[in-house]
Amino acid sequence: MQTITLDGYADVREAYRQHDLKQALYDAGGVVMADSLLVLHGGEHRRRRRVENRLFRRGTFRYWEKAFLRDVVHDTLAPFRAAGRADLLEIGYRTIMNLTAMVAGIDQPTGSPEETDELYRFAKKFSEGATMVHTTRDPEVVRAEVQAALDDFDRVFLQPSITRRRALLERFAAGEVTEDDLPRDVLTALLRNWDELGIDEDVLRRECAFYLQAGSHSTADAFSHAADDWFTWAQRDPEAADRARRDPALLQRCVYETLRLHPASPVAQRRALAPITLRGGTEIPEGSFVVLDIAGANRDARVFERPEEYDPMREVPADVPRWGHAFGGGMHACIGTELAGGVPSPEQPTPEQAHEQVLGTVTLMLDALLTAGARPDPADPPRRDPHSARDHFAAYPVVFDAP
Ligand code: HEM
């Protein structure tokens, strides 16, 4: 079978928008990814996405950011700061875990740190299952571990969450509670649209597991890279880095520049359902396997000057997001873009624009981390993930300067 690799910015953008290119990255990760939103195609994808999109309406995350996100970020950081040290991956996962569980519709009845830790272990295992295509471990062993984690997750978290929602939906149908009493989460949306979507309990379980890992892993990864890039920048150009540290709109640009250089998903893969010719002339025969090299396209010198350089203040063409293709595009474009990345802040916001600003979780986390005086632990350098060919940190120890 022919493989075609696209690594130009414009080619990748066009490929994302082709309806005849079908998701193909997660075939190996079926144990957790089969029938999830990210692998559905055509009408099935449209129906599921329409149902889930309603939860991600513009404005929802602006409200979240104003109402409680900052507190979540600060509360999660506080014990690490008090202890004087932390691991960035752990901070990242702990911060985003409860938020992602809320989006997915996974209840945490006790709200204890142990409960978050348990979800964190599940999310990490699901993530390993989803990215099986990149694993350097024995795939059969990984698959068995992921299946066991799914069974435990189902028993401990999912079934109680389903029972509570079904009871609420019955009361809603009986007119005893109103729409406002129903949780706004993926699980409730799926239960309400069960027949229209034609799903079963296994699909439901995988969709919730997929959300848990999709939201948490990429955010934790972006956070560790964003901090690493900023620390390196601060050594090279302390004045510019410090200016960005003090201005959330500039810090957001730092995060976008990190996403461009270290996209959590460095490649996307599709299969051609029909022959396609891209505007630039590339021919994609039917049945071929198409690799969208996101990391490569994000360093396309025709779009990003000095592409290898980390330069958060760079100029980019008006129709190009600063993060390049890090949030994907077309039908599978990341549903959590606004939650994780916020909305790009204008250069010099008016007071009104500043009030409306949505910075996104990664920027809020980076802001809190740097304000707390974090720096890499000189005695314990960061380590890459030895079990993945992807550009991930497995550990990133930091210490906090005394407040
Ligand atoms: C920095 C953080 C994040 C990054 C870099 C990221 C990146 C991506 C990318 C590249 C895709 C498209 C994959 C493809 O086309 O094959 C995607 C899809 C998706 N992401 Fe994210 N994501 C992030 C955060 C989140 C969060 C916080 C959530 C939810 C809480 C989320 C939920 C999803 C879902 C549900 C899809 C599938 C959409 C569909 O297939 O229609 N992501 N993400």
UniProtKB/TrEMBL annotation:
Keywords of this entry: Heme, Iron, Metal-binding, Monooxygenase, Oxidoreductase
Q: Which SUPFAM superfamilies match?
A: Cytochrome P450
Please indicate which superkingdom the organism of origin belongs to: Bacteria
Task: Enumerate composition-biased segments (Basic and acidic residues).
Answer: 377-393
Q: Where is this region: Disordered?
A: 373-395
Q: What are the coiled-coil residue ranges? A: none
Q: Which GO terms describe its molecular function?
A: heme binding; iron ion binding; monooxygenase activity; oxidoreductase activity, acting on paired donors, with incorporation or reduction of molecular oxygen
- InterPro entries xref list: Cyt_P450, Cyt_P450_CS, Cyt_P450_sf
> What Pfam families does this protein map onto?
p450
Output the PANTHER family linked to this UniProt entry. CYTOCHROME P450 YJIB-RELATED, P450, PUTATIVE (EUROFUNG)-RELATED
Similarity comment: Belongs to the cytochrome P450 family.
The protein here is known as Cytochrome P450
Give the originating organism. Pseudonocardia broussonetiae
Q: What does the record give as the organism's lineage?
A: Bacteria, Bacillati, Actinomycetota, Actinomycetes, Pseudonocardiales
